[in-house]
Predict the structure of ABC transporter ATP-binding protein.
Amino acid sequence: MSGLLEITNLTAGYGRIDVLHDLTMSIGAHGNVGLFGPNGHGKTTLLRAISGLVKARSGSIRFGGAAIANQTPRSIVGLGLVHSSQGNRLFPDLTIGECLALGAYTPRARAQEEANRERALKIFPKLSERWNQKVRTLSGGERQMVSIGTALMSSPAMLILDEPTLGLAPKIKEELCRAVLDISAGGIPLVVVEQDVEFLLELSQHLYLINHGQVAAEIKPGQTMDHADIMALYFGQ
């Protein structure tokens, strides 16, 4: 395997419960990667383990050749591996501008703060229009834009998005999907958890089905897959 992010025999969970079981995958060797599968089967736990938010009990995680399993989230972000979590967990009483500024806290990001701000505002022009508006006054879709925009301010070498369109109205969902495709077109490799399989197929030809904390199926670039094929895998047919 030769991906930017390599996960080998990873086991992780909460309390006495293992959620991930000896999971192995290579991410970034073929561009973007999409993760899909039933709710509660380990997708978010996997992202949290990669980001240092959940401890690895065994196995290894390497990013750009560096061992990052059980490193601090701060040090992992400093390497350029940035996670925009599910539910856009932002500081509600900060303005859009203040939230984006927080994303540029690492030395790596501060050196590129102006360019990153221009990129984020080009992808999400609404943020510029409401620069001084507090996050708590925004809609769910607008908060998701702030969350991803803040992640872009961290100068990601790889960006992880956990269900970026979850719970959004169709029009806003379409807008977010276009924005994610724009980010990809700008050269940032993405790892995206998403229930919208059509969107995942548009974003990436490399998909993993996560089921019961393991890789249940891998779809590699070049394999012919459509929505019906994906659904058959999803439901175990």
User: Anything to note?
Assistant: The mean pLDDT is 91.
